[in-house]
Design goal:
By secondary structure, the chain is α+β, with helices and mostly antiparallel strands. A hairpin with a 2-residue loop joins strand 3 and strand 4.
């Protein structure tokens, strides 16, 4: 006779995809078996974390900023960080270059069994509008003089 049974599962902060939780003798109480088998649960990444990559205890993502924002610096709120449901504010320093990483220690994933967190690395992608391109082209001589 088939029975249903619930198993209480506790996922600890910092557990990683690929870890296996084992519940001994919780499977198949069929009388044809000498003893019940073990239930194995394999952890996987949660769905919905698009744009975020976990590397051990560290996280990586990217943010797009406008040309003006790279020149002046700015603040961006990153959505989707698993530890910050309301978003995580990140300061982009003045003069940040296209492809540069902003590194935030302690803003990654929890380190299992500790009170510490990994590192967050944010790759900065700079977008330049057609209007900004035209302004830069028309003022190239002035800009060279300013930055040389």
């Amino acid at each position: 006779m088939a029975q249903e049974k619930s198993i209480q599962v506790k996922i600890e902060a910092g557990m990683r995809p690929g870890e296996v939780l084992v519940f001994p003798k919780e499977c198949s109480d069929d009388p044809n078996f000498d003893e019940p088998g073990d239930v194995h649960l394999l952890l996987q990444e949660a769905a919905g974390d698009e744009g975020w990559t976990r590397k051990g205890d560290d996280l990586e993502t990217q943010v797009s900023i406008r040309f003006q924002e790279c020149l002046l610096g700015c603040s961006k709120t990153l959505q989707g960080h698993p530890g910050y449901p309301a978003g995580l504010e990140v300061q982009i320093p003045v003069g940040t270059l296209h492809g540069e990483m902003v590194v935030l220690a302690g803003k990654g994933m929890p380190k299992k069994g500790t009170q510490e967190f990994g590192t967050l690395r944010v790759r900065v992608i700079i977008t330049v509008s057609e209007k900004e391109r035209e302004i830069l082209r028309n003022n190239a001589v002035v800009l060279r003089a300013m930055f040389s």
